[in-house]
Amino acid sequence: MTNIVVLIKQVPDYTERELSDGDNTIDRENTTAIIDEISSQAVETALQIKDAAGDGKVTVFTVGPAGAKDALQKALAMGADEAVLLSDDAIAGSDVVQTSWAIANVLSGLEGTELVIAGNEASDGRSGSVPAIIAEYLGLPQLTHLSSVTVEGGNVKGKRELDDGVYEVESALPAVISVNEKVGEARFPSFKGIMAAKKKPLNEMALGDTNIEAGQVGLDNASTKVVSAAPKPPREAGEKIEDEGEGGKQIAEYLVSQKII
User: Fold this and answer.
1) In 3D, which of 150, 143, 145, 121 has the Cα closest to residue 48?
2) How many CA atoms lie within 13 A of 14 on its CB side?
3) How far apart are CA 241 and CA 257, in angstroms?
4) Burial call 136-161: b when 16+ CB within 10 Å, e when fewer
5) Which of 142, 148, 174, 176 is nearest to 160 (CA)?
């Protein structure tokens, strides 16, 4: 039996994303929140591992405001067995180190966890470091940025794609892994799954239910902060080639110059 915990990230809808006045943090109160796509793919990965094993349990976990329950409900509707939400006003504004500490603290109390799965990076912060920091806090091996994952014989295996090639990596369980967008599309929740999700356990926790102290988290205690922000500049027009008989050659030369081929 494989007990898997999937770290869920709820993010502001990118079409509405705005920053709060004064501290340059994302204005989550006035923005529609959705489950991050890579989190859905991490859930799918966990469900496929459970299906292949024929048994096991998938728990989804997130840190965030009360509205984060929407993201957890979607994961439950996809097929996860239960959910955990750590929600406390004192956590608001935490940076990646603090957030990872809070997550690791809760994970250490979830007995029997053999595998922790996360997306490689969230679309609202793109730090790409939370899974690695969690693994460090928990003292567990980490396999990150995986494009495929299998679990067998007490080991987790996967493929990690880098610019210089594809690496096959493996670790004994328990372990922490992160997956990238190539791991596979997430399933859509069925109507039956949506109805079943309403009856599945969703455990809400506050700081008082953990060993986390208020002084260890929160915007005022963060070790990093956003000092400024600016809109992404518009994309410049690409190079246009007029085909007068040499178009194919010119395109090939351009692709070579960009090291695409």
Assistant:
1) 150
2) 10
3) 15
4) ebbebbbbbbbbbbebeeeebbbbbe
5) 148
Question: What CA–CA distance (Å, rounded) separates 93 from 35?
Answer: 19
CA distance readout (Å), 185 to 44, 54, 219 = 8, 21, 34
Reported as a single tens digit per residue, the pLDDT across 246-260 is: 888 888 888 888 888
Q: Model confidence over 102-138: pLDDT tens digits?
A: 999 999 988 889 999 999 877 666 677 899 999 999 9
Q: How far apart are CA 261 and CA 257, in angstroms?
A: 8
- pTM equals 0.81
Q: Which two structure tokens, joined as six digits, stand for 211?
A: 């060993």
% residues pLDDT > 90 (the chain): 49
Q: What is the pLDDT of residues 89-101, one digit of tens each?
A: 888 888 888 999 9
Query: Strand pairing of 3-7 and 115-119?
Result: parallel
Q: Are 143 and 160 in contact (CB under 8 A)?
A: yes
The label of the residue with tokens 């489950």 reads 35
